[in-house]
């Protein structure tokens, strides 16, 4: 069974070691995402229809909002992976380049000696018993070794980072509604109906402008809200499920497992936090449910 071996959240985003033996559904992240093989069964990661076998010689680099999925080489056989999720705004504050000026030009990531060295250091720190983990410099080095400076226009195209002013007003409204109310499943249908568009036409317009389908976008927002509550609150899983509008805890657990490979309780069990991350207030939790 898939499990989290180590998980750490901080101002940089999150980094984890996962033991995976089951496929993950098509999904996306708002963070820059790196996947490295450690041991066991290899995995196949498909990014925008292009598949890469993650093994000792090849990793995967995924830009924010690029749709992807994971398939173990042999279902039921565990493979150990280091996975990194770096917030674009954090990356921007750590470099002298504008936000978005570093992007991954290709999903295939050749494991050089430099990359392997930083990967191994991140793993060693995650598995250590030290209370304070200084992961930020290691993760920044990993990101820099995995990317290359490119022009601002190409970077924006790669990460689908269009400003809201450039979006169709109907798409911009839908995005705002989903971000504000992750528990409100009717937001997409409501915006499409108000705009006088068919569901198919609206989904096509949204995907063209945002880079992912409305469903993938909504699932990403909902998963992020779930992770925030698992990490930043002490609320029970049942309470988190209710706050995010799931009909019951088992439905929430299936959703979380399909995207993360493990149950919410298993994720929280090995969780560590670094840096200043204020606890989520009950008011903020309630505000997500409409």
Provide key terms for this protein.
single chain, 290 residues, Jelly Rolls, 7-stranded mixed sheet, 4-stranded antiparallel sheet, 12 helices, 43% helix, disordered C terminus
TL;DR of this structure?
The protein has 290 residues and is α+β, with helices and mostly antiparallel strands.
Describe this structure as you would to a colleague.
It is a single chain. The protein has two domains: 3-159, Jelly Rolls (Sandwich), CATH 2.60.120; 164-210. It is built from twelve helices and 13 strands. It has helices at residues 88-94, 113-127, 136-146, 152-159, 169-180, 187-195, 199-210, 214-232, 237-243, 249-260, 264-269, 282-287; strands spanning 3-10, 13-20, 24-27, 32-40, 43-47, 50-54, 58-62, 68-72, 79-86, 102-103, 108-110, 148-149, 271-273. The protein starts with a strand and ends with a helix.
- N-end to C-end Cα span: 35 Å
Report strand %.
Answer: 15-25%
The CATH homology group name of the largest domain:
Jelly Rolls
Could you report the average pLDDT, rounded to the nearest whole number?
84
CATH class of the largest domain: Mainly Beta
CATH architecture term of the largest domain: Sandwich
Structural class: alpha+beta
Query: How many extended strands?
Result: 13
Roughly what percent helix?
Answer: 40-55%
Write the element-wise H/E pattern from the N-terminal end onward.
EEEEEEEEEHEEHHEHHHHHHHHEH
Principal-axes geometry comes out as: globular
How many domains? Answer: 2
Strand arrangement within the widest β-sheet reads: 11-7-4-9-2-1-13
* Count of helical regions: 12
């Amino acid at each position: 069974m898939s499990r989290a071996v180590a998980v750490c959240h901080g101002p940089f985003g999150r980094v984890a070691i996962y033991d995976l033996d089951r496929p993950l559904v098509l999904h996306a992240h708002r963070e820059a995402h790196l996947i490295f093989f450690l041991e066991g069964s290899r995995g196949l990661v498909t990014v925008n229809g292009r598949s890469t076998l993650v093994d000792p010689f090849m990793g995967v680099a995924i830009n924010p909002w690029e749709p992807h999925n994971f398939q173990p080489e042999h279902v039921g056989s565990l493979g150990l992976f280091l996975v990194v999720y770096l917030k674009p705004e954090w990356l921007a504050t750590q470099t002298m380049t504008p936000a978005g000026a570093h992007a991954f030009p290709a999903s295939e990531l050749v494991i050089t000696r430099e990359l392997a060295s930083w990967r191994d250091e991140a793993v060693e720190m995650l598995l250590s018993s030290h209370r304070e983990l200084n992961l930020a410099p290691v993760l920044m080095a990993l990101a820099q070794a995995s990317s290359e400076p490119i022009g601002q226009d190409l970077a924006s195209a790669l990460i689908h980072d269009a400003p809201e002013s450039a979006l169709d007003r109907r798409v911009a409204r839908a995005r705002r509604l989903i971000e504000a109310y992750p528990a409100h499943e009717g937001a997409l249908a409501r915006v499409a109906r108000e705009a006088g568009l068919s569901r198919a036409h609206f989904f096509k317009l949204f995907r063209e402008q945002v880079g992912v389908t409305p469903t993938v976008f909504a699932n990403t927002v909902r998963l992020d809200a779930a992770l925030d509550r698992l990490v930043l609150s002490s609320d029970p899983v049942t309470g988190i499920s209710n706050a995010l509008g799931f009909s019951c805890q088992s439905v929430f657990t299936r959703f979380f497992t399909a995207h993360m490979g493990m149950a919410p309780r298993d994720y929280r069990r090995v969780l560590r936090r670094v840096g200043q991350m204020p606890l989520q207030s009950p008011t903020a939790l309630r505000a997500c449910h409409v």
